[in-house]
Amino acid sequence: MSDPSERPSESMAGPDTSGLKPLSNANDDELQSLSNPNNAELTRIMGRAGIAVTNGGFPLDDPEDEEEVDEDYVAVDQEDVNDYPYWFRRPPTHHRTKLDELHPFVQLLSVSNVEDCVNVENAFPEPERCSRDKFIYRLTRCPELSLGIFTLPVLEEGKPKPRATLIGHIIATRTSEPLVTDRAMCLPNRWQDERWAFENNEAVGHEEGGSTIAIHSVAVLPEHQGKQVGSTLLKSYIHRIREAQIADRIAIITHDHLVPFYESFGFESRGLSKCQFGGGGWVDLVLQLGNESS
Fold first, then answer.
1. Cα–Cα distance for residue pair 205/185, rounded to 1 Å
2. pLDDT for 148-183, tens place per residue?
3. Domain ranges of the chain
4. C-alpha Rg value of the chain to the nearest Å
5. DSSP letters along the chain, please?
6. Where in this chain does the entry annotate a coiled-coil region (predicted)?
7. Is residue 289 scored above 60 in pLDDT?
């Protein structure tokens, strides 16, 4: 139920500061050498750390006054910025990717994101899309099982703070079954009035306490596919569920050509699914989180 075709990016190691010597073990000659403003090694090391050096050999009182801030900083609230020295808040030194250019971040979704989710879901063929009503149901009943990845535009000078844009999402519910079923994907008729829904004495929709996280949608806007958005989102989602220890497994149905993608994250194919959603033809995949086998 997704069409991500990316792999997570990897960051290169930061600058090597192994050239710094502990002053406690330095002799007088070394101290004099380090205090010399013409010392090329000192200039190189201090320059890589983002520290400007005066003619007297000491850092300027306020390096921010002497540096121009890069224009591609992400727009964030001031209270969200950690009070680190300037050079620790500079952009990463690794080669920028298409994903970096989006300034992405992930966060849980809520009912306020329904229209955004409907827009992202349009990446699928119409028969395979989650309906608006199902988004409302799932983001009301179990929003903690959802995750969105957003892009935050660069803040332009003199312009109001831009709104983050949802570019990909994962939507899920709980089920007591080891695999995704058509019953798990149902929208209960009276879900606003009844916490538990049954049809023919079988639970339908979200089951509180179910040990399987049933993913119903992994979607990325078409214009952002191929930028590692889907793989980054899925990796983050798996990490959150695993660390929270709230389920024994994660299950999903997908098409044949996407099986290798999910297998790269640890999912195992369980063969042809019985689900007939969207016309059927799905493959069951399971990522086991606990010791229990299914």
1. 6
2. 999 987 777 778 887 899 999 999 999 999 999 999
3. 26-89, 100-288
4. 25
5. ----------PPP----TT---GGG--HHHHHHHH-TT-HHHHHHHHHTT--B-TTSSB-S-GGGGSPPPTT-B---GGGS----GGGGSPP-SPP-TTGGG-EEEE---GGGHHHHHHHHTTS-GGGPPPHHHHHHHHHH-GGG-EEEEE-PBPPTTSPPPPPEEEEEEEEEEESSSS--TTTT---TTTTT-SS-EETTEE-S--TT-SEEEEEEEEE-GGGTTTTHHHHHHHHHHHHHHHHT--SEEEEEE-GGGHHHHHTTT-EEEEE----GGGS--EEEEEE-SS---
6. none
7. yes
Q: What is the pTM of this model?
A: 0.67
Are 231 and 149 in contact, with CB atoms under 8 Å apart? no
What is the C-alpha to C-alpha distance for residues 150 and 141, in angstroms, rounded to an integer?
Answer: 22
User: How large a percentage of the chain has pLDDT more than 70?
Assistant: 66
pLDDT of 35 strictly over 90: no
CATH number for the region 100-288 comes to 3.40.630.30
**Average pLDDT in the 210-216 region?**
97
Angle among Cα 108, 110, 111 to the nearest 5 degrees reads 165
